[in-house]
Amino acid sequence: AYHFVLARQPEHPRGLALLGVLGRDAGALADSQQLLERACQLDPDNGQWPLELANTLQAAQQLDQALAVLE
């Protein structure tokens, strides 16, 4: 479903973020990070996307970057 949304609206923040969460859950951490970073850029007022990005960075053992996202 998220691929369908992004095919029609490639800059859809929620679609990018939720696909990023699914990617993290599947172990595709680099892809997840890219998707969530883009969602944060497109929707800076949404506080959920930085939390999801920090979770992805934590899963990738990038703890300093995860903390920086939350500051």
N→C terminal distance: 32 Å
Category from helices, strands and their pairing: mainly alpha
Provide the residue-averaged pLDDT.
Answer: 94
Number of helical stretches of at least 4 residues = 5
Beta fraction of the residues?
Answer: under 5%
Low-confidence stretches: none
Report Rg: 11 Å
Order of helices and strands: HHHHH
Q: Biggest sheet: strands, sense, closure?
A: none
User: Helical amount among residues, as a percent range?
Assistant: over 70%
Shape by Cα distribution = globular
Tell me how many strands there are: 0
Characterization of this structure:
Helices cover 77% and strands 0% of the residues. α2 packs antiparallel against α3. The protein starts with a helix and ends with a helix. It is mainly alpha-helical and 71 residues long. The longest helix is centred in the first third of the chain and has 14 residues.
